[in-house]
Amino acid sequence: MIDLKNKSAIVTGSARGIGKAIAEKFAELGAKVVICDMNEEATKSTAEELKSKGYQAIPVVCNVTNSEDTEKLVETCQKEFGSVDILINNAGITKDTLLMRMKKEQWDAVINVNLTGVFNCTQAAIKPMMKQKSGSIVNLTSIVGIYGNAGQTNYSASKAGVIGFTKSCAMELASRGIRVNAIAPGFIETDMTAAIPEKIREAMKKAIYLGRTGQPVDIANAAAFLASDAASYITGIVLEVHGGGFRSAGAE
Fold first, then answer.
1. 188-212 pLDDT tens trace
2. At what angle do helices 17-28 and 40-52 cross, to 10 degrees?
3. Cα separation of 23 and 115, whole Å?
């Protein structure tokens, strides 16, 4: 049984979508959760929603591309909950277009949030984790970081970078009792994928072996397992969660 009681968890990008589903699942399993996002109103609302159900949750507005913000994020978790046991690097954006049309600003924005943001949060979080000699970090990458996707060179590059970062961190931090893993979602029903035309969505769905698109809770369940002591002998892996048919199914 997965149990996160007495664990404190930071979940970036958790005011909505996959991040919110992860925060909700962790709270249900007994974790104390830091809701972290850029949108102040949505961040506070999600934290209040969890607290109304009797869970422990606090909101922190944070720009993951800003190292001062991520340092304060970790400090707040320590101050409020006494430790930093779990970090879920979920915050991410897309700015899709074909490479020949892509502006440098589109490239920089995606790399800064999706890759540099993971670096900033991880570097801040491992300081208390190393002192504790324990911790679990789960990074959200994507199947397009493994297989690529036309029109997403910036997103694919950022997510491939997260995979390399994850594997290297796992090597560096294992001796300190810190595990680092990644989840590569396939097509997940979120606001990010809602804009895809219905015809393309149906084609993607048909390509998935299990015959359905993924839900945020599917990723939340995988994150809960990797973050928990049930996965105590697992580090440095990339868990693909896509229902099969990944090469044709698109990505989160």
1. 988 767 666 777 777 778 889 998 8
2. 30
3. 21
For residue 12, the 8-state DSSP code is E
Largest alpha-carbon pair distance within the chain? 52
Tokens of 100: 């020949």
Q: 80: Cβ–Cβ under 8 A, 6 or more apart, which residues?
A: 32, 34, 58
Strand 86-89 and strand 57-61: the pairing is unpaired
- Residue 162 and residue 145: Cα distance in Å, rounded? 8
**Alpha-carbon gap, residue 67 to 223, rounded angstroms:** 24
Taking only Cα atoms into account, the Rg of the chain, rounded to an integer number of angstroms, comes to 17
Encode pLDDT of 142-183 as tens digits. Answer: 999 999 989 999 999 999 999 999 999 999 999 999 999 999
Q: Are 95 and 148 in contact (CB under 8 A)?
A: no
Q: What phi and psi values does residue 189 have, to the nearest 5 degrees?
A: -70, 100
Catalytically active residues, by annotation: 155
Q: 């954006």: which residue's tokens?
A: 93
Answer yes or no: is pLDDT of 38 > 80. yes
Q: For residue 189, give the amino acid letter.
A: E
Q: Which CATH number fits domain 8-241: 2.60.40.10, 3.40.50.620, 1.10.10.10, 3.40.50.720?
A: 3.40.50.720
Q: Please name the residue that has the structure tokens 């044709």.
A: 248
Q: Where are the alpha helices (DSSP H) in the chain?
A: 17-28, 40-52, 67-81, 104-111, 117-132, 144-147, 153-173, 191-194, 198-207, 216-227
Backbone angles phi, psi at 238, to 5 degrees: -120, 110
